[in-house]
Design goal:
This protein is α+β, with helices and mostly antiparallel strands. It has one domain (11-135): Nucleoside Triphosphate Pyrophosphohydrolase (Alpha-Beta Complex), CATH 3.90.79.10. The protein has two helices and seven strands. The protein has helices at residues 53-65, 125-135; strands at residues 11-18, 25-29, 40-41, 44-46, 68-81, 86-98, 109-112. The strands form two sheets. The chain has a four-stranded mixed sheet with strand order 4-1-6-5, covered by helices on one side. Strands 3-2-7 form a three-stranded antiparallel sheet, with no helix packed on it. Residues 10-142 form the Nudix hydrolase domain. InterPro entries: MutT-like, Nudix_hydrolase, NUDIX_hydrolase-like_dom_sf, NUDIX_hydrolase_CS, NUDIX_hydrolase_dom. GO terms for molecular function: 8-oxo-7,8-dihydrodeoxyguanosine triphosphate pyrophosphatase activity; 8-oxo-7,8-dihydroguanosine triphosphate pyrophosphatase activity; 8-oxo-dGDP phosphatase activity; 8-oxo-GDP phosphatase activity; metal ion binding.
Length: 142
C-alpha cells in the first residue's frame, strides 16, 4: 500500500534565489495556514503540468513578489521528504529582475547577507553553506 503523503513521485517546485550584486539574497517567511508557517525559505512554488521549470519560476516570482525575472541560471536540485509532501526543488539564481519585491501573499521577507532569520525550512538549511561558498568565495569557508 502506498502512503499518499509520501508519494513515490515528487512534486516539482521552482525556487528562486534573488541575489543582489553584494551577495544579499531574499528569503520569505511562510504565511499562516501553510505547512511550516513561520519558517523562512527562498520564494517559489509548484510547477504546473506541462510547464517548464524556468517558466514556473518566472510565474511564481510575479505572483508572490510582483517582479519580472529577466534571467536565471539553474543552480542545483534537491529532493526532500516532508511529513506533508515529497518535493523535488529546482533552485535557480537570478541576478536580474525588474521591479522591487512586494509582499503579495502577505508574507514577510528579508534581504540577508549572513543569514540570520530562523527557523529555516529544513530543505533550505544545507543550501545556505553551499550558497555562501558561491557568494563569498574568498571568505575561506571550508
Amino acid at each position: 500500500m502506498t502512503d499518499p503523503v509520501r508519494s513515490p513521485v515528487p512534486i516539482d517546485v521552482a525556487v528562486g534565489i534573488l541575489m543582489k550584486a553584494n551577495g544579499d539574497v531574499l528569503l520569505g517567511q511562510r504565511p499562516d495556514g501553510k505547512p511550516y508557517a513561520g519558517y523562512w525559505e527562498f520564494p517559489g512554488g509548484k510547477v504546473e503540468p506541462d510547464e517548464a521549470i524556468l517558466d514556473a519560476l518566472k510565474r511564481e516570482m510575479q505572483e508572490e513578489l510582483g517582479i519580472e525575472v529577466l534571467s536565471a541560471e539553474p543552480w542545483c536540485g534537491v529532493e526532500h521528504v516532508y511529513p506533508h509532501a515529497h518535493v523535488r526543488l529546482h533552485f535557480y539564481i537570478s541576478r536580474e529582475w525588474r521591479g522591487e519585491p512586494q509582499s503579495l501573499e502577505n508574507q514577510a521577507f528579508a534581504w540577508q547577507g549572513s543569514v540570520g532569520v530562523e527557523p529555516l525550512l529544513p530543505a533550505t538549511i544545507p543550501l545556505i553553506e553551499w550558497l555562501d561558498r558561491l557568494r563569498y568565495p574568498d571568505a575561506g569557508l571550508v
